[in-house]
């Protein structure tokens, strides 16, 4: 894949955003081949993890469009189209679960908007692991409310350079190449925005999926040109799905999400059959980087995604546990009860 020449972007703090009237329909460019992740000397070593969350992306929307970059990645990836988010299937609670490994009753972020007076997530996150080990973490997002998930000092950069994915991914790609943090989180708002405005599975929302596909190409072009694809694990997923013009979490269309892992040591073209929850993203990230599991977390590493050699050579290589933050979440009159997260495939939603 030819590398893109990316302009350096400063880390701007939450500029005002103007929502375009619609997402322009642009025919996708022919897909350049995405090679299987390059093998590294044994024991295999994943040096960094990049998590891309495509907000509001349903698995059937992805497969309906099957845009070229996602399609090519999946040939070399381990993936599931039956992963689930938590019952509180909204952007902030779901992303908090994704990046911590805890459900909402533990992580405490039960609301879904930017409320600075309520503080930050109440459990450790993957960002804390990288910060406490001095390895560096960064987050590039389309929605300011996600800042509730990043404890002060846990990320070197938390940036919202735009709402839609084009500006977000340009800045995120440049930072990844220049600074090479151990963990980078990238958030694309596009599918969720067009789902709310035009409806889930509408033509406009499916076009938003094609748009995020082009943004994903920007990221992969940059990492390939810098040689970072050789030792980077990419996890591509979503926070929730949706139906009609919203997502309540009451039905499967709201909770089913894609989960795709691509990188060194990943089983190529493997459809994962074991149950996956969004909380497993945090656990898989920590496991891949050699961190011990977070005490009390319910997430589990998705070991089925990796080949036997990688599993044998991986696992916790760092000692100690993440510090603090494990305290009861604050109660509020607008808090609702959250059903517990089960780890077996649901018979109904």
Question: What would you say this structure looks like, in words?
Answer:
The radius of gyration is 18 Å and the shape is globular. An eight-stranded mixed sheet has the order 4-3-5-1-6-7-2-8, sandwiched between helices. 30% of the residues lie in helices and 12% in strands. Helix 1 packs across helix 8, helix 3 (91-100) runs parallel beside helix 10 (279-288) and helix 6 runs parallel beside helix 8 (203-225). The protein has 349 residues and is α/β, with parallel strands linked by helices. The chain is built from eleven helices and eight strands. It has helices at residues 59-65, 68-75, 91-100, 104-107, 126-132, 165-179, 190-198, 203-225, 252-255, 279-288, 308-313; strands at 48-54, 78-84, 137-140, 157-159, 183-188, 232-237, 256-262, 270-271. The chain has a single domain, classed as Alkaline Phosphatase, subunit A.
Number of helices: 11
Radius of gyration from CA coordinates: 18 Å
Number of domains: 1
The mean pLDDT is 83
Under CATH, the topology can be stated as Alkaline Phosphatase, subunit A
Major β-sheet annotation: 8 strands, mixed
Query: Which quaternary structure do these chains form?
Result: single chain
Number of E strands: 8
Tell me what the CATH architecture is: 3-Layer(aba) Sandwich
CATH superfamily caption: Alkaline Phosphatase, subunit A
- In what order do the strands lie side by side in the largest sheet? 4-3-5-1-6-7-2-8
- What is the first-to-last residue Cα distance? 41 Å
């Amino acid at each position: 894949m030819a590398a893109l020449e990316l302009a350096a972007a400063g880390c701007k703090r939450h500029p005002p955003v103007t929502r375009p009237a619609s997402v322009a329909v642009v025919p996708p460019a022919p897909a350049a081949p995405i090679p299987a992740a390059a093998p590294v000397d044994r024991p295999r070593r994943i040096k960094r993890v990049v998590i891309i969350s495509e907000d509001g992306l349903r698995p059937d929307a992805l497969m309906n469009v099957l845009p070229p970059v996602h399609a090519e990645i999946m040939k070399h990836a381990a993936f599931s189209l039956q992963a689930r988010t938590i019952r509180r299937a909204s952007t902030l609670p779901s992303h908090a679960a994704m990046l911590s490994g805890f459900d909402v009753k533990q992580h405490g972020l039960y609301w879904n908007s930017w409320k600075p007076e309520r503080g930050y997530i109440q459990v450790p996150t993957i960002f804390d692991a990288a910060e406490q080990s001095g390895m560096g973490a960064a987050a590039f997002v389309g929605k300011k409310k996600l800042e509730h998930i990043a404890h002060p000092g846990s990320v070197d950069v938390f940036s919202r350079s735009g709402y839609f994915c084009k500006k977000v991914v340009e800045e995120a790609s440049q930072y990844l190449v220049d600074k090479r943090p151990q963990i980078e989180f990238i958030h694309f708002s596009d599918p969720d925005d067009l789902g709310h405005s035009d409806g889930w599975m509408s033509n406009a929302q499916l076009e938003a999926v094609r748009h995020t596909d082009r943004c994903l190409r920007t990221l992969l072009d940059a990492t390939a040109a810098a040689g970072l694809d050789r030792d980077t694990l990419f996890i591509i997923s979503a926070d929730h799905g949706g139906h009609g013009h919203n997502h309540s979490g009451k039905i499967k269309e709201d909770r089913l999400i894609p989960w795709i892992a691509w990188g060194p040591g990943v089983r190529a073209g493997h459809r994962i059959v074991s149950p996956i929850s969004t909380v497993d993203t945090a656990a898989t990230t920590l496991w891949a980087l050699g961190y011990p599991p977070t005490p009390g977390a319910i997430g589990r590493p998705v070991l089925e995604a990796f080949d036997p050699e990688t599993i044998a050579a991986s696992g916790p290589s760092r000692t100690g546990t993440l510090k603090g933050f494990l305290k009861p979440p604050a109660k509020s009159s607008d808090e609702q009860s959250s059903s517990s997260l089960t780890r077996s495939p649901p018979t109904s939603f």
